[in-house]
Design a protein that fits this description.
Order of helices and strands: EHEEHEHHEEEHEHEHEHH
Largest sheet: 8 strands, mixed
Mean pLDDT: 92
Shape: globular
CATH architecture: 3-Layer(aba) Sandwich
Helix content: 25-40%
Number of strands: 10
Strand order of the largest sheet: 3-2-1-4-5-8-9-10
CATH class: Alpha Beta
Number of helices: 9
CATH topology: Rossmann fold
């Protein structure tokens, strides 16, 4: 059994970070939320956590989750390449443009993916893509979706993906629901479905869902 890390940094303090923090806190992990300044965000509605600047959160963590806006993630995290060297970075973001209402309006990277660009910008970091194909609450509570939802893994490092798999299982995912797609290049498919997910939400609202194969 893989021993999962005791300290997890989540960069970002929005809905995704709240869901992830809630799931990991139940498993007994220490959670650090990386924010632009170390103050407590007024909008935070998640569990009791520690807040720190991004560099301080990264330095203290065994695993780092990228829950920052995908359209700025490469520049934001690339500037912290030294701090992220040797770390496992789990990317759950989607790189899209935004319309006047702030909703995703189109993919930014047509011939590759955010995960690939992060791996290129962070050559000494092990990047794993996952959890970007569902509504945020489902990330830490897959049982809220009827049937058997799927979650995908993409990354070049087998040990890093094994660690992420173990973390997903802690949050309630069943091993057979976790589909290892292969190398980091396979993140292109999971990232592209955000456009479908956006249109689905326009029809169904914020009803829990996960983009999954049905057989």
């Amino acid at each position: 059994m893989i021993k999962t890390p005791s300290t997890i940094a989540i960069l970002g303090a929005g809905r995704v970070a709240t869901s992830l923090a809630s799931g990991f806190a139940k498993s007994g992990h220490q959670i650090i939320i990386g924010v632009r300044d170390a103050g407590h965000p007024a909008s935070w509605s998640g569990p009791e956590v520690r807040f720190a600047t991004h560099p301080d959160a990264i330095a203290a963590a065994d695993v780092v989750f990228n829950a920052t806006p995908g359209d700025s993630s490469v520049d934001r995290l690339g500037a912290m390449a030294d701090a992220l060297a040797g770390k496992l970075l789990v990317d759950v973001a989607n790189a899209t443009g935004r319309d006047e209402r702030g909703a995703p309006s189109g993919m930014l990277y047509f011939n590759d993916s955010l995960a690939e660009r992060l791996q290129s910008a962070l050559p000494l970091t092990r990047v794993v893509k996952t959890l970007n194909t569902m509504l945020a609450p489902v990330m830490s509570n897959p049982a809220m979706v009827l049937g058997s939802p799927a979650v995908y893994l993409s990354g070049n490092d087998a040990d890093a993906k094994a660690t992420v798999r173990a973390l997903l299982i802690e949050m309630g995912w069943v091993d057979t629901q976790i589909l290892d797609l292969g190398s980091i290049e396979t993140a292109r498919g999971p990232e592209a479905v955000i456009l479908l997910a956006t249109d689905v939400m326009k029809v169904t609202g914020f009803k829990p869902f996960a983009i999954s194969p049905v057989s």
